[in-house]
Amino acid sequence: MSILTEAQAKAILDKVIAFSTADETSAQIGGGIQGNIRFARNDISTSGIVDDIELGVQVAFGKRVGTATINQFDDASLERVVRRAEDLARLAPENPEFMPAVGKQTYQATDTFSEATAALTAEARAKIAEASIAPCRDRGLIAAGFLEDGNTFFAHANSNGNFGYQRTTVADYTCTVRTEDGRGSGWVASNVKDVAAFDPAADIQIAMRKAAASAEAQALEPGKYTVILEPAAASGLISFMMNFFDARSADEGRSFLSKQGGGNKIGEQIMDPRVNIYTDPRNPVVPTMPWDGDGLPRDRVKIIDGGKVANLQYSRYWAAKQGKPETAGWGNTIMEGGTKSTAELIAGTERGILVTRTWYIRMVDPQTVLLTGLTRDGTFYIENGQLKYPVKNFRFNESPVIMLNNIEELGRSVRVEDGSIMVPPMKIRDFTFTSLSDAV
Amino acid sequence: MTLGFPVGSDRPLGKFIMDRRDFLALSTFFTGAALSPSIFGKAIAASQLQDGIEIAVKKRLADAALAAATAAGATYCDVRVGRYLRQFVITRERNVENIVNTESSGTGVRVIADGSWGFAATNALTEDAVAEAARQATAIAKANARTQTAPVQLAPTPGVGEVSWRTPISKNAMEVPIADKVDLLMSVNDAALGAGASFVNSLLFLVNEQKYFASTDGSYIDQDVHRIWAPLTVTAVDQSTGKFRSREGLSAPMGLGWEYMDGRQEDKFVLSNGLTTYGKSYDMKEDAIAAAQDAQAKLKAPSVKPGKYDLVLDPNHLGLTIHESVGHPLELDRVLGYEANYAGTSFATLDKRDAAFKYGSEIVNLFADKTQEGSLGAVGYDDEGVKTKRWDLVKDGTLVDYQTIRDQAHIVGKDASDGCCYADSWSSVQFQRMANVSLAPGKTKLSTADMIAGVDNGIYISGRGSFSIDQQRYNAQFGGTVFYEIKNGKLGPMIEDVAYQMRTPEFWGACSAICDESDYRMFGSFFDGKGQPSQISAVSHGSSTTRFDGINVINTARSLG
After folding, report:
1. Which residue in A58, A97, A152 is closest to B12 by CB distance?
2. What is the CATH number of the domain that holds A60?
3. What are the distances in angstroms from CA A60 to CA A80, A105, B46?
4. Considering only CB atoms, which chain A residues are within 8 Å of B86?
5. Which of residues 421-440 of A touch B (CB under 8 A)?
6. CB B4 to CB A437 under 8 A?
7. Exposed, middle or buried, A180 (CB in 10 Å: 0-12/13-18/19+)?
8. For the segment B403-428, what is each residue's pLDDT rounded down to a tens digit?
9. What is the complex's ipTM, to 2 decimals?
10. What is the pTM of this model?
11. Domain termination site, one of A163, A193, A211
């Protein structure tokens, strides 16, 4: 039931559009099966399966828009959801920024699906939990972790004849390992499209090593340090920054990408020339849907090119208003890097601090994208190319824009977070730590 | 179009309809305000928002699940039949960007079998479907029992029979016509634009949770829970300098009805410099005008000189500090390690309670309360049928207790749950969530004006700003919405770029004065995030204006060169 075929999805969407009396109608249907298993204190704590499909319908009478969703698919329900959307549209005032639905588009499918991930069973999930817990039990360490996997489909259509359908899988694993006395903590994460690329038995060793090695942390004075940010640590700041590439906010003067005196910073050098960031739905490591939320086809777009701002994200309304070409919203972020692993970056570092991950990151000042947050689960002092000793966690106050002007070296870019971003490990000088934390 | 098409297309692990990121995209001005994912349910027409599922139908569904679970071998079962309604009216400047009604209904069944928990949920409101969910939950429990090292121990709670409870509201916000809501927000935006705002966003976010709980303990509890939130953000831009500043509204989300929007005079708290904050009702238009003036003033306000200051913290600011540095570390599941992989653990370990750990100065009394009228966390019974109550967490500065639920109470030697179990949907499994945690007002008469008069070198802070705290709740950094210098007992000019850094026990140890009960107000959040998969919870934190001595303040201004 939960995975509709392309034909099944299209049949439902066609019916919805046929029921509508509005000037235009867009509909989408998506859902599938999400499995999860959670463990803590070396025991499985919860596990479950969520099985659901939702249908969303948006209609417009002139510039009045209404939206409704439902998860029943008999004809009466389909007609009811259309009428509800129509009722809401009639209650809404005209939106002067209304944009008509896109016309018929051509999409090039992207490789977002893996049979192996789709075939994950409750037993397989339990085995993954056990592969994490058992070695920790044996070594007197305590594991807490979570695995969630999704096998989903998504289809959309509109009254202009546009249609798209694609399936997606993902498995996301995180595990925190702590020493029994609570003085050491390590962490590992893996996000994959295909579970064949996932090896929890190897991953857990990383978290266990970091937990054991971080137990005797020494306090260093806060200040500016050379740091090696592992990809997960760097992406915390970079993915946060990527939320602020909206052209309208920049043009309105309320973004770090606004230009003094008016306009935006497209074409300006704002980072080290080694920084190259782009989006590409067909990237084989972080593939994403071939369309955006409006149904526009996605393509490769340069965002930062040689440290210069190459493009900003334009909504359809803002593109039309500013006389810019209509381009799809970005679905992933790829930051290019070099060839070295994190270990190789450490080996080439005379003095510095290795940061496993960054945590509780919040915007302090949108004017400069100044962010604050903390290091967590494995912070080590590096001397002469070696991890010398664990250090207490720090709070940082740093802007990713400033950070990307202070690059010493970039390593090999890898898939992190929710699978929509690739970031390299990076060696950064003058990274600003403002206080110490006693947290482990 | 933003709302219509976020259905998980890029994030197969997101909630199918909408998560917090979509909500941010939708409203654009919540930077930092929200804590975790939200759920949008099925959208329905306004006229249908006032109905509910008939109580007899809910009881039949519940009985079907209880019977099926028991027959399948469960030793305990609870059933939650829920209907969750939300309404959003979203505006910027002179446009209404979206109007959305959502509904989600279904049944969640939780059982204990062979000493383990199992859970299953269905959106089909038929006796067959809920019975099947009960059997699935029992099968999952039995499967989990195979590797479980210790059986679940449930603290007893009495069956209460058939009872009901409703948030004490005087006007159901869902029943107010859409046109009135649009008119209000348009008048708010017009007022802000007229008072110097370059941009303004305003929003109404209304919640009604219709929850029916039944358990094998013999309880059938019908509850009708209402919440309201009316946030606004004003931005001022000076293109010649390239500077921009925003000022959030000073309202709080509340467990109230439309009467919260009345802006009654007796609910206003006015400082000598005119800054107005709000208690049990909110004057949104007045605050929008002040926000526009403040945003303009922020563009020119001097930058703070870093150093040690005595802080005078408004309740609408201090609430978030209480949330992060008291509410979270005193959640027993965090203390025990159940949240180690996500939200984290806690510095406030059990040995500290046993050793009478000094959490703060002698005047610090922090209490949990699920009964406080007008609060977001107020309910008659929690989501495992436990009658709610008030209890002490920190008494005269000493750590005395935690927040717990039925299956963890025995670990701290309690014979009953504290009644703080919550699930954010019928389809989510209930677990320990933060109660309203509040700072008791000072016992001797003290006004904000008198408190400020005693400060030589300080800063007054109102509203929330950026907030960040470590995974054991030691080291935190908080900004705010507006900051005023205090010099020699007088409120001075507005200042900018203020954030204070603190270590939890030292911060509460530096608490030197608390205004009296007449100054008591609540802060709130709709988006307390916890658990994997992540769930949200709404919670309030009350306090009076409070003074903290010698707190480290940093300057957050930077230059991008």
Report:
1. A152
2. 3.30.2290.10
3. 16, 20, 18
4. none
5. 434-440
6. no
7. exposed
8. 999 999 999 999 999 999 999 999 89
9. 0.93
10. 0.93
11. A211
